Amino acid sequence: MQHSRQTFLLFTLNFFDAVLTIYWVHNGFASEGNQLMAGLLDAGYIPFLAVKLSVGAVAAIVLWHWGSLRLARYGLTFALSIYISLMGVHLVTGLAAYGFISRAMIDDFSLWSNMVFAFFN
Q: How far apart are CA 120 and CA 31, in angstroms?
């Protein structure tokens, strides 16, 4: 079934998001943007991973179980697009952390993206 693979992909991306977040935060390259998860990360890596993977697992199970419903398919597509975008953020973070992208380039991109989002507000 197609939605089974997509659900597995969603959970896999959730796992990589958690591991990469721990790596970037631990090495001082980034901070956790979600304040609730940042609090858990401050409490330790195990609580952060436990909650992150539990939430991901529950979401994946719900989406897999009710994958035949239109709303679940839309939700799965939306969640996958969010996590694929997050992987792009991790990629840019990694490129910046290891010097492949300059700080000026990141500042320019940030300014540009703020203007784009301001246009839609």
A: 26
The amino acid that residue 25 corresponds to is V
List the helix and strand counts (H, then E) for the chain: 5, 0
Number of other CB atoms surrounding residue 82 within 10 Å:
12
Backbone angles phi, psi at 67, to 5 degrees: -65, -20
List, for residues 67-117, the tens digit of each pLDDT value.
Answer: 888 988 898 899 999 999 889 889 988 998 898 988 888 788 778 877 777
Domain of 56, in residue numbers: 2-120
Instruction: Give me the number of domains the chain comprises.
Output: 1
In the three-class reduction of DSSP (H, G, I as helix; E, B as strand; rest coil), residue 58 is classed as helix
The rounded distance, in Å, linking the Cα atoms of 107 and 9 is 32
